[in-house]
């Protein structure tokens, strides 16, 4: 299956709480540019999309959702900045088997996006993600092993 991991777009630095930090217009633009580049790679549909409940992640998905199609978009409290990568990978693996998923997109945050990438691939250090960064991983659910196919940065 293909696992796509995207970091939210650039967000404002100050808000009443971290959860309420909104995307900047530049963040929206860069996220759309990355989404279009993903489409040029041949990927415009996801079987499932998981989005962090934080405002900047929700706004990132709202900005890019017109570029993609998915009938199953879920807000997931497990993919906030300090979510547990091991638990998320186990969850994704379980629903991939149960729902016979061929693709999933996770819209999340640092540091989790790096830890998720390392956990899905194994034997790599957690990579840094720029805002709006997107990675595509070919993931073998049975073997619990993946390989980075490509990454896109704005």
TrEMBL record:
One of its GO terms (cellular component) is cytoplasm. It comes from the Bacteria. Signal peptide: none annotated. CDD domains: HP_PGM_like. Gene3D superfamilies: Phosphoglycerate mutase-like. InterPro entries: His_Pase_superF_clade-1, His_PPase_superfam, SixA. It holds the Pfam family His_Phos_1. GO terms for molecular function: protein histidine phosphatase activity. This is Phosphohistidine phosphatase SixA. It comes from Vibrio mediterranei. The gene is sixA.
């Amino acid at each position: 299956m293909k696992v796509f991991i995207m970091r939210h777009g650039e967000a404002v630095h100050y808000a009443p709480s971290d959860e309420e930090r909104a995307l900047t217009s530049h963040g929206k633009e860069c996220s759309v540019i990355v989404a279009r580049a993903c489409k040029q790679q041949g990927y415009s549909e996801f079987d499932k999309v998981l989005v962090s409940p934080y405002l900047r992640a929700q706004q990132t998905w709202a900005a890019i959702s017109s570029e993609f199609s998915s009938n199953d978009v879920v807000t997931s409290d497990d993919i906030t900045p300090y979510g547990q990568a091991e638990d998320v990978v186990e969850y994704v693996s379980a629903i991939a088997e149960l729902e016979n998923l061929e693709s999933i997109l996770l819209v999340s945050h640092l540091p989790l996006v790096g830890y998720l990438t390392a956990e899905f691939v194994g034997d790599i250090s957690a990579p840094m993600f720029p805002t709006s960064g997107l990675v595509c991983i070919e993931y073998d659910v049975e073997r619990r092993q993946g390989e980075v196919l490509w990454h896109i940065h704005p």
